[in-house]
Amino acid sequence: MVGSEEDFESNPPPIFLTEVDKEVLAQTDEEFHYQTWEDLKQIISENRLETLKRKPSDLRKYLVWLTRIKATYGSVTTYILQERLNWTPLPSPEDVTTSGQAPTFEFKNPHPFADPDDYCILKNDWPYGLANGIHHLVVWLKTPISVKPETGEITEAGRAIVEKWVDETFVQRLAQEGGLDRSGLSRDEALEKVLWFKNWTRLQSVRGLDHVHVLLRDIPDSLQAEWMK
């Protein structure tokens, strides 16, 4: 299903491009600035999430893929549910693929992250253009995290819930065996290996299906596999 750069050049997909997209597509991979850990820390702390970019060749492939997925499944949400999560939404009077209505699910606990069966950690199929050693995971949830209705930004209450879960799931585990040789780390060292963010609603490529992005730096592959079980 992955598109090619040749597909993009010969038949550009009919998708709205942001100014950031246009800027990236005007570059080559060699000209592109891969986002470093320090870049990411600053972008997230300043809430400039719209500046996160895929590298040019990946963006071209992603746009072709996006067009094909929408033609085949009706929406990216449907594709994620059917092919990546295997989650079945509860019956709805409206078709969520066309109505824009967020799907709802049967869950074991109404509180986000309270039950492992209510969320799923996956590797991001289309990560941003990140420097070597940075891993990009996406955490999909059946129970939504609260956002501000006027902006779509995460609320302070929602932020506290995610912070607590990220600490318990990633930071504490990295403190146990987070070194590349599976040695333990100090808490400060473990904290320096984890970042997270939740895109504003208008920046989400998969709207209506709640998710959080987690970035990890220089971690053992075995730990990443453990988290994605």
Q: Which helices and strands, and how do they pair?
A:
Blueprint: H1 5-10, H2 19-25, H3 37-45, H4 56-73, H5 76-85, H6 96-99, E1 119-123, E2 134-141, H7 156-177, H8 187-191, E3 194-197, E4 211-217, H9 221-227
Antiparallel strand pairs: 1-2, 2-4, 3-4
Structure, explained:
This protein is an alpha+beta fold. It has nine helices and four strands. The model has no long low-confidence stretch (mean pLDDT 88).
Helix content: 25-40%
Backbone shape: globular
**Average predicted local confidence, pLDDT:** 88
First-residue to last-residue Cα separation: 24 Å
SSE string, helix = H, strand = E?
HHHHHHEEHHEEH
Low-pLDDT segments, ≥5 res: none
Quick recap of the structure?
The chain has 229 residues and is of the alpha+beta class. The protein has helices at 5-10, 19-25, 37-45, 56-73, 76-85, 96-99, 156-177, 187-191, 221-227, and strands at 119-123, 134-141, 194-197, 211-217. The relative contact order is 0.14.
Keywords:
229 residues; globular; 38% helix; four-stranded antiparallel sheet; alpha+beta
